[in-house]
From TrEMBL:
GO terms for biological process: DNA-templated transcription initiation. The keyword Transcription applies. GO terms for molecular function: DNA binding; sigma factor activity. It holds the Pfam family Sigma70_r4_2. Transmembrane segments: none annotated. Keywords: Sigma factor, Transcription, Transcription regulation. Residues 90-139 form the RNA polymerase sigma factor 70 region 4 type domain. Gene3D superfamilies: 1.10.1740.10, Winged helix-like DNA-binding domain superfamily/Winged helix DNA-binding domain (1.10.10.10). Signal peptide: none annotated. CDD domains: Sigma70_r4 (cd06171). This is ECF subfamily RNA polymerase sigma-24 subunit.
Amino acid sequence: MNLTRDADDAKDLVQETLLKAMLNKDKFKAGTNLKAWLYTIMRNTFINNYNKITKRNSNIDSTEYFQYFNTDENYITHNGATSDFVVTDINAAIAGLSADYRTPFMMYYIGYKYLEIAEKLQIPIGTVKNRIHIARKELKQALKTYAPGV
């Protein structure tokens, strides 16, 4: 009840927990705390189900992704001279990235997960991670003027 706050959901969670425990009983080590093991299974099951539900209910509008490639005055926040320079430099640095690096980086920046990016771009997840890492590294180099202590 502490996790779900609903009696029916709590019953379902207990049933799912016990089913998983029975299926994985060989992984339980004799002499350890059974209650803690079951609670860990229950908590992880709850978290996984919660993540599935929230992911299913949250739709990412892909048009939001494309606005970053055609950034114009409508999308720039004007906070004064310094921020104008910073935003201009950041946009220039991002525009200076190769499309192979810019596309996954921008998708990750607006909230896509690595797996979602890999599926949309039809490339391996390792390639996505590598391209985002390289994009960050190149952006860090291009924007080193703004690094603390410089």
